[in-house]
Amino acid sequence: MTARRSARAQEIALPLVVVALIIAGTILKGSVFFSTANLWNVLVQASVAGTIAVGMTFVIATGGIDLAVGSVMAAAAIVGGHYFASAGSAAFMLATVVAAVVLGAINGIAVAWLRIVPFVATLAMFAAARGIAHLISHQTPVALYGLDALTRIGSQRVLGIPIPAIVFLVVVALGWLVLDRTRYGRYVIAVGGNREAARIAGIRVRPIVFSVYAVVGLCTGIASVLQTGQLASASPVVGLGLELDAIAAVVIGGTSLAGGRCTMIGTFFGVITFALVFNLLTLENVESQIQQILRGVIILGAVVVQRRGH
Amino acid sequence: MTALLEVRGLVKVYPGVTALDGVDLDVAAGEVHCLVGQNGAGKSTLIKCVAGAATPTAGTIRLDGRDLTTGRPGTALSAGVATIYQELDLVGDLSVADNIFLGHERRIGPLLDRRRMRREAGELLRRLGHATLDPDAQVGELRPADKQIVSMARALSRDVRLLIMDEPSAILDPPEVDALFEVVRRLTAAGVGVVYISHRLDEIARIGDRITVLRDGKTVASNLPATTGIDPLIQLMIGRAFHELFPNRNILRGEVVLRVRGLARPPHLAATSFEVRAGEILGIGGLVGAGRSELLRAIAGLDPVTSGEVSVGGRALPRERPDLAVAAGIGVAPEERKSQGLWLDWSQVRNVTIADLPRLGRGPFTDPAAEHRAATAQLRALAVHPDDPLRAAGELSGGNQQKLVVARWLVHASSVLLLDEPTRGVDVGARAEVYRVIGELAGRGLAIVMVSSELAELVGFCDRILVMREGAVVGELAGETATEEQILRHALRTGAEPRTEPRTEARSETP
Amino acid sequence: MIHSKRAVLHGLVLALALVPVACRKEAPKETPKEAKPAEPATATPPPGRPAGAKIKIAFSAPSADHGWTGAISVNAKKQAARYDDVEFSLTQAPTAADQVSQLNTIMMQKPDVLVILPQDETVTPAALAAMKAGIPVINVDREFSDPGAQRAVIKGDNYGVGFQAGQYFASELKCKGNVVEIQGIAGISVTNQRTKGFADAIAPCKGGIKIIAQQPADFAPDKGLSVMQNILQAQPKIDAVYTHDDDMAQGVVQAIKNANRDKEMWLTGVGGSKAAMEQIKQGGLYRATFLYNPTMAASAVALARLLAKGQGLSDLTEPVIPNLIVMQAQGVFKDNVDSYMAIGF
Predict the structure, then answer these.
(1) Residue B347: DSSP 8-state
(2) Does residue C102 carry a pLDDT above 50?
(3) Is residue B473 a contact partner of residue B274, using CB atoms and an 8 Å limit?
């Protein structure tokens, strides 16, 4: 009951915040803000952190955390860009995604079988993956202008919708479907909610725990392709602080850091909330410090709403 | 007797529910006043009001003539009301002394006065007759009975006038209960008034002075003498007699379903072998810590074993694979229902179907409608109350939570049920329900293994009883002829000192 | 906030990434008694270093987490490798605090000269201590807060970079147009000086050049991309973009290209990366970059060696090195890019 009520409070509160932001934006910046072009732009902006936040929701649902996503995103792009770019866009994308899944799977093994606390295991990967990115790239971005199919991600639209926005929406929809409507999703939540009860009910806990880190790796790989597609280069310094953006979006969405309680729709609105704030304040040319303060206020406000729901 | 606590016309209304509807209670100084009633009768709400954890809607609470109807725990505490709750609220990582003085630490300036706390803790434990407990021992490593003592010492560390004990004996062995009673007698001799809540009605005559019976938020009988028999008490509580608790059932004995051969996990479990047939209810008795829960967990593949084999229907199970044990038809209802058996914020339906999602889903997807159908059928058959399959498990009473876990294995069509203390924390009225359900399952041909600390339950309900001691099965009794004394004799190793506390004793010998 | 986040990150990267700390060997010992009188040019070798022994130069820099800092380390190492008589060691510090403790360790090993590119001013006391201990310090780029903390300074010219860029904008736009400025990390002196130099240089246009949007993007290409995406939504008419960094500018370039507005405007960078120079050579969106070249690290090593040998700059009359060298904030354009390609990083 308590859980259900607080989830409901969250699910209403965040869309309200989003609506309020849209109204504020329309009043302040009317035609520029409330245009299809800008609203798609907000989704494009949300696409990288948002795609990762979808995977992060799975990890946090099990009571885990992944601090490595930003570093893994950079490392995966550098691995793909440095070794596979010459073989074309498809090879690059595949290599990038596979690299991210492999790094995610290493986290999964460390957490599920070596029983290292998720915070520590992914903290190690956070450092190591960034090191890999710098080491392979020699601190120099890898230019990918030649990869037409890849760079089209940044420039082209399908049915008037930018490709990163489409990919993000599809990933959110799939994430929701898997978490809310499949057996696997139920097991993920079960393991997060009560690990021992899950074991006694015959759920294989370790493979489930392992899998969520592979899932966030997959999402990070996709995000990495979106990022490199837009940047037309793979850089070792991208994704700094991205893990915190993704975690913040998941948390304000109403997913509990303790595990067992999660909402993919909440995560979506969490991501959109931050993207709207960023968009609106840049449109208004407000100093970036104000934006940081506002992010803090939003995170705190969301947690307070969560509390009051109890 | 002069009234220490005087509760008059207490009413507590929660949104939608009237938990208390005019309750009176008198407790005299130096008296043990027993409070009985089914779960939901209002006992917990009453003690919450007295302890200041809830504000009454109407009525008065007076202690020594002083009005306590505040709803503030601080006021009640400072007036000398101490409460020991059912769920022990101790901090496992802290020492005994730290726990006793938690919240009112002895200090020198801003610094903790550890030496003084240790000394005073030692004195308190001595007053409680447990001088062997080491004030420096970590509470998380103590046995439940010792934790209980720590809770009581904590209550005593403040100047206590009225001690409220909520089911203190639920997790204790008979000898430990004796020790507990000894402590309670010391307190009352010192003039402390005690409110004692227990589901073990047989204890009342041994420890109580007077009895108040609650039903549906009302006082149905007050100030009964403690000599009132169990049967009249039960009738007051539920309107039924004791012997009616156990269902009449036709015992059928089918094929051997569960076979355990030489299963061992030293030092918790010595090599154990037994068989259970379809339709049979096998009881496992013994003291807390005798290895009964460990045996169940080893059978279900939840803990690693060093040797031995478990087979279901003639097929051996691989070790340490609880998922395959479940698939082979073993269902476990753990003792710690809340922390190990259920997802408290999940609906009844989800709790019941979790082990059967592959069968109840379509491909990789879940099918909420099919889950709802399957779960509802079993929930109805077990008469889970309230009859709202979407209600969260955490809102159900202990007995209904137990049924929820059992319903899971019915949906799964398990052939073996391992029940660990299935009636612990379940009140008398609901126990009859639990027995009826278990009896029916056996009637359907399930093999049931049931760990219980309730001697009456083992003797009155089980077809066969294994008694364990120190990790080994030391006796086997037939259900029809077994007596409570026989079980105790096996469990205690006749003639020997029953209380064994090797760890704390060893420590306390070196001052 | 960004600072500390980055600092933590750097710490971890350093912890696990390979840190190219050169192995120190004992300098070959020669007895000073047998040393021959020094050549006239080498005047008097500083006490404590036997003539003929290798010159020990220790270089302390921030971690190589970015194109420019990476190039600093590379340039320093390359330059040192050119000298047979130099024994070179490089340490990289993720934070100012780490740098201070690293410097304390280095001082115990008694190098002949210390070259320091400090994380920030808080490294000053460590440099002062080194000077007091008789180890001369050459300060690279970011200046210490106490003039006694170094023997010589060699630095880039952040204000000059901004000023040159501003002059270029003023003349190219003929003092009229809408300009977007994408800054580095908000609040640090590098950013402030590059912004101020630019503003001062366009001031004579008397408001003809309008800075219609000004946002930081933390020197990171992904931040540059998303900041510029938003600005493109807000601003229907942009004539030119002034960015504070070549790496970061790559994100800005892509945002403009993805929005199909690369014919509408042009942009400039700062630094002198190879990628930027190639795009300048190609022509189009990327018009210019203003050198803030990490070759200054190589020059710093050269200066350190001269200092240790007691020599001056060869074509100058003084027998010792100067106290202050400021690199010119040279603009690189399509017509001169070929001559700078070799030093692009």
Answers:
(1) B
(2) yes
(3) yes
Could A200 and B300 be called an inter-chain contact, meaning their C-beta atoms sit closer than 8 Å? Answer: yes
pLDDT on residue B16: 64
Which residues are CB-contacts of B286 (< 8 A; sequence separation ≥ 6)?
B292, B467, B468, B469, B490, B491
pLDDT above 70: residue C40: no
* Partners of residue A7 in chain B, C-beta under 8 Å: none
Where are any strands of DSSP class E within chain A? 142-143, 157-158, 161-162, 233-234
Strand partners, B28: B3
Residue among B184, B106, B101 at smallest CA distance from B150: B101
Q: Which tens digits make up the pLDDT trace of B424-459?
A: 777 667 778 888 889 988 998 999 999 998 788 888
Q: Judge: A190–B323 Cβ closer than 8 Å, yes or no.
A: no
Determine contact, residues B38/B18, Cβ cutoff 8 Å: no
Q: What is the 3-state secondary structure (H, E, C) of B227-278?
A: CCCHHHHHHHHHCCCHHHHCCCCCCCCCCEEEEEEEEEECCCEEEEEEEEEC
Compare CB distances from A199 to B302, B394, B395 and report the shortest one's residue. B302
Say if the Cβ atoms of C229 and A44 lie within 8 Å: yes
Q: Using CB atoms, pick whichever of C212, C231, C258 lies closest to residue A282.
A: C231
CB proximity list for B78: less than 8 A, separation 6 or greater: none
Per CB-CB distance under 8 Å, the chain C contacts of A143 are 275
Q: A46: which 2 tokens?
A: 């949300």
Amino acid identity of B455? L
Distances (CA, A) of B145 to B83, B295, B455: 17, 21, 18
The partner residues of C331 in beta bridges, in order of sequence, read C290
Residue A282 CB coordination number (10 Å):
22
Phi, psi of C299 (to 5 degrees): -60, -35
Range name among A129-143, A148-162, A231-245, B80-94 with the lowest pLDDT average: B80-94
C vs B contact (3+ beta-carbon pairs below 8 A): no
CA A82, CA A84: separation in Å to the nearest integer?
6
Q: Which residues contact C157 (CB under 8 A, 6 or more apart)?
A: C292, C326, C327, C328, C329
This prediction has a pTM of: 0.77
Q: What is the per-residue DSSP string for A82-147? A: IIIGGG-HHHHHHHHHHHHHHHHHHHHHHHHTS---HHHHHHHHHHHHHHHHHHHHTT-PEE-TT-
Q: What is the mean pLDDT of residues B21-26?
A: 90
**pLDDT(B403) > 80:** yes
Please give the Cα distance from B171 to B173 (Å, whole number).
Answer: 7
Q: Strand, coil or helix: what is C152?
A: strand
The minimum CA-CA distance between A57 and chain C, rounded to whole Å, is: 23
Distance (Å, rounded) from C-alpha B20 to C-alpha B14?
9
Contacts of B361 in chain A (CB under 8 A): 182-183
Neighbours of C42 (CB within 10 A): 13
Please report, as a single letter, which amino acid is at residue B124. L
**Highest-scoring range by mean pLDDT, A9-13, A62-66, B156-160:** A62-66
Check B366 against A183: CB less than 8 A apart.
Answer: yes
- Closest Cα in chain A, distance from residue C60 (Å): 18
Given a cut of 50, whether residue B273 has pLDDT beyond it is yes
The pLDDT mean for chain B works out to 85
Confidence of residue B504 (pLDDT cuts 50, 70, 90): very low
Whether the Cβ atoms of residue B212 and residue B236 lie closer than 8 Å to each other: no
* Contact across the interface for B343 and A183, Cβ inside 8 Å: no
Kindly report the CA angle at B272 between B270 and B277, in degrees rounded to 5? 160
The DSSP annotation for B209-223 comes to SEEEEEETTEEEEEE
Quick one: DSSP state of residue B340? I
**Any bridge partners for residue C179, and if so which?**
C211, C240
CB-CB neighbours of B271 under 10 Å: 18
